[in-house]
Amino acid sequence: MLDNCPLCMGTVKGYMIEVDRPSVLQEVIQSLSQHSQKEWQPVNHSQLWVGNRLFFDCLSFWSEYYSLENWDFYEAVKLGSEIEKMNHVTFHEVVARRPVLWVDEIIQRDQIHMMYQPIVHVEHKQTIGYEMLARALKPDGSLISPALLFESARNQSELFRLDRTCRIKGIQAGQQLSQEQLIFVNFIPTSIYIPEHCLQTTMKAAYENGIDNSRIVFEVVETERVDNLEHLKRILLYYRREGFRYALDDVGEGFNDLSTLLALEPDVVKLDRKFVKNIHLDKEKRDRAEKIYRLTSSMNAIALAEGIESAEEARILREIGYDWQQGYYYGKPSFSPSSNSEVFL
């Protein structure tokens, strides 16, 4: 059993709400019936079990009619099918959690969409693939900040579901590409506990969408949060055994130091954008980029420079040897893949 694994450990399932009069309970039940009859069940004449999503859907509605500040809330923790314990929480603690619970609704309502950013081979002047970038949409069609989305998912223990959804969506979006183009799909290693189990839906998505595993490059992000290198290696080896490739993102410093690079043996190494910005004006950045390129080449891996925004940056990196490049200079993320002529104007 792994610590914090959502498949193994108990999770918060909802809230028990005590009311002082049966008539109030009936009013609450009537309001619930307007939303759903599947997410709740009565416990007895004075208590009601409410699922997380439904409770927060209705919270603002109830607040208009009832003085919830005076109610007692109990957080129910379930292990398997049994309620293990009930923790008392205040109304204000419940309300404080509300802003992050929309992550679950976004997943349920299929509001995760993929944007495409081109990855090019400079010498061949070809778009060799796209990085699939997850974006969530508000009901009005505006974008939600990816940082807010993923941090909220982490705070509400929804990171596993969100990361899985994004992997599947990224693979599905690859159907819009040519058979020769690569599909770069981000994944967060701390959201994967048992790769043989957690990645079954990813395998299924590739098969059902007719995409050869060798076209998919899983890009490791947030490696600075990884404190178990052996577990990460286990995930990456599973990918490789199944015919996928994998890339290390933001290589340059911190956790992604050069010893880690050697230990993980990625197929693609993405130079941290902080060493790309204004590289033509900074000798130290150029020296670091050259060092990473030499090490990458010695491992028979491919060096990719991301975050390129100018012709000068592209030129210097090409001189070093970074034939694979990515950044606004070649194209911003868009909801449809760009043509090769649009990338190389």
UniProtKB/TrEMBL annotation:
CDD domains: EAL
Lineage: superkingdom: Bacteria
Organism: Alicyclobacillus tolerans
GO molecular function: cyclic-guanylate-specific phosphodiesterase activity
Ranges of residues in domain EAL: 96-345
Entry's transmembrane regions: none
Listed name of the protein: EAL domain, c-di-GMP-specific phosphodiesterase class I (Or its enzymatically inactive variant)
InterPro entries: Cyclic-di-GMP_PDE-like, EAL_dom, EAL_sf
